[in-house]
Write a structure and sequence with these properties.
Blueprint lengths: L7 H11 L3 H6 L1 H23 L4 E6 L19 E7 L7 E6 L4 E7 L4 H13 L2 H7 L2 H6 L23 H4 L4 E7 L2
Antiparallel strand pairs: 1-2, 2-3, 3-4, 4-5
Length: 185
């Protein structure tokens, strides 16, 4: 059975969006805790589903509290809920990120801002063979499910050590390597 988000989480997040202040949150702490249990249960059921098809090491449900120290927006709470799922072992890197929001939830799969070593490894793979990933991205299933690689961030010039005229330069120049599935709430 496919996990379903309880619609009440969207109601809570919309109310929080309209009342994103500590006073309202304190007055509605029991409401928040009720919804927190529901969303964590949902995230856990997604983890169990993903674990049946992939090797996962764990999940991290992110806190609702924002770090406002360096932000112009001083709203104390996130108006979305999110969770990441880490793939197991050094051989299986990358992962999943799920974000639940009334404005449009999504699931991201792959490498978002990979570390320096993984980024170089991915680029070297694309330098050697971009045909395999291109064939996968061009399959009907991937196009219908994700629409291809998320546009994300790319370099304007070829990375150091790579030929700017390489046939796979568009793949090599990417900084993020994720597929993104958006959901209607």
């Amino acid at each position: 059975m496919t996990p379903q988000v309880n619609p009440s989480i969207f109601q809570f997040l919309n109310k929080l969006k309209d009342n994103n202040n500590r006073k309202w949150f304190a007055e509605n702490k029991s409401y928040y805790l009720e919804e927190e249990e529901k969303i964590k249960s949902f995230f856990t059921s997604v983890f169990q589903g993903l674990s049946s098809v992939d090797y996962l090491e764990g999940m991290n449900a992110y806190r609702i509290y924002r770090d406002v120290r360096f932000s112009k927006d001083k709203s104390p709470y996130k108006i979305y809920r999110s969770c990441s799922y880490k793939r197991a072992t050094e051989a299986l890197r990358g992962g999943y990120h799920l974000e639940i929001t009334p404005d449009g939830s999504f699931l991201a799969v792959g490498f978002w801002q990979p570390n320096k070593e993984d980024l170089l490894r991915i680029r070297k793979e694309f330098e050697l063979d971009g045909d395999t990933i291109t064939e996968i991205l061009d399959t009907k299933l991937i196009k219908e499910t994700f629409g291809g690689f998320y546009k994300g961030h790319s370099l304007k010039k070829a990375p150091k050590g790579f030929d700017k005229n390489h046939p796979n330069i568009k793949l090599i120049n990417k900084k993020d390597f994720i597929l993104l599935r958006k959901f209607k709430n």
